[in-house]
Design a protein that fits this description.
Recoverin, domain 1, 2 domains, two-stranded antiparallel sheet, globular, PBP_GOBP_sf
Length: about 300
């Protein structure tokens, strides 16, 4: 009797904890999922630890507006890499670094002013001087674009993280082998399980928020397509949200993609991963058992001591 009582108590406690959690997050996007956020100050602090630069010295560098010295250059490049805002081969990523600076409301010239600053500053530097190029690019944003935002901001997944996110979404959405074969052939959008895949990917990656809808800014940060922030795209997304206001989030997410985003968000990563998963070829798809999965189909006959429904 004591054992049964303890099990029931534990079940009650677990249920209460879950209900409290569901209540806390219902209708919100507070869950972490696979979303990457970080502040530029925290990125600098992390990099200072990597290079064994004391907190006192780092504070002095910030107070002195990032003086031109080797330690500061290493810190800046590291911090920009840390938030996905820099690539040695191509330089600063405008669609990412802009998240970490806030221009004044009355300033309408900050973008072109910053671009001109970077173009002029990099003229004097060797193409392989990655520390110097990252440093000068950062200074142009620091001096010409806006004030540093202290709070955490969304930043994009790197290629390996993007692949892991997509693989987990395929796994969570339980995409059948027959549909993966279709993906590998480039037949994606009209496949029956793609709405579930898109929804899990978008929600888990931070590109869709429950009760808020598609986050165009996050998609822009990830893919860098300026058309994602155009008024035309925004109006399209808002129109779908209004039309489908009573639909479930999976439907709203998929229809938003289909009607507004399918030419702006690349699907070739899905095709490439599907090709890997089906063995690098385009086999004849097996018969698709894509119907609903039965609950309780495992023939359990023993009495359960835990989590009885």
């Amino acid at each position: 009797m004591l054992l049964i009582h303890n099990v029931q108590t534990m079940r009650s406690f677990t249920a209460a904890a879950l209900l409290a959690t569901f209540g806390l997050f219902a209708g919100s996007s507070a869950l972490e999922h696979y979303i990457c956020t970080k502040s530029l100050p925290n990125a600098l602090i992390e990099c200072a630890e990597y290079f064994e630069i004391s907190e006192c010295r780092l504070s002095q560098y910030v107070e002195d507006s990032y003086p031109n010295c080797p330690d500061v250059k290493r810190l800046i490049r590291c911090a920009l890499l840390n938030v996905g805002a820099w690539e040695d081969a191509s330089g600063v990523r405008e669609n990412v670094i802009s998240n970490f600076f806030e221009p004044a409301a009355e300033d309408t010239c900050y973008v072109n002013r910053t671009r001109d600053c970077i173009a002029e500053a990099l003229k004097q530097l060797d193409s392989k001087d990655y520390l110097g190029r990252a440093y000068e690019s950062f200074l142009c944003y620091y001096r010409q674009y806006g004030n540093v935002i202290e709070s955490e901001q969304f930043f994009p997944n790197e290629p390996l993280e993007s692949k892991r996110l997509l693989l987990s979404a395929i796994n969570f959405a339980h995409i059948p082998q027959c549909e993966l074969v279709q993906y590998s052939r480039g037949h994606i959008v009209d496949e029956p399980h793609f709405p579930a895949l898109w929804f899990v990917w978008a929600l888990r990656g931070g590109y869709y928020k429950i009760a808020e809808g598609t986050d165009l800014q996050a998609l822009y940060n990830q893919f860098g397509c300026s058309e994602l922030l155009s008024q035309c795209t925004k109006s399209c997304v808002e129109g779908v949200q209004r039309e489908l206001s009573h639909a479930d989030d999976k439907t709203k997410s998929y229809q938003t993609f289909r009607r507004c985003l399918k030419d702006l968000v690349p699907l070739d990563p899905i095709q490439k991963i599907a090709l890997e998963l089906v063995g690098g070829s385009h086999p004849t798809p097996p018969p698709c058992g894509c119907g609903p999965v039965c609950r309780g189909a495992c023939g359990a006959t023993q009495k359960s001591y835990y989590n009885n429904n």
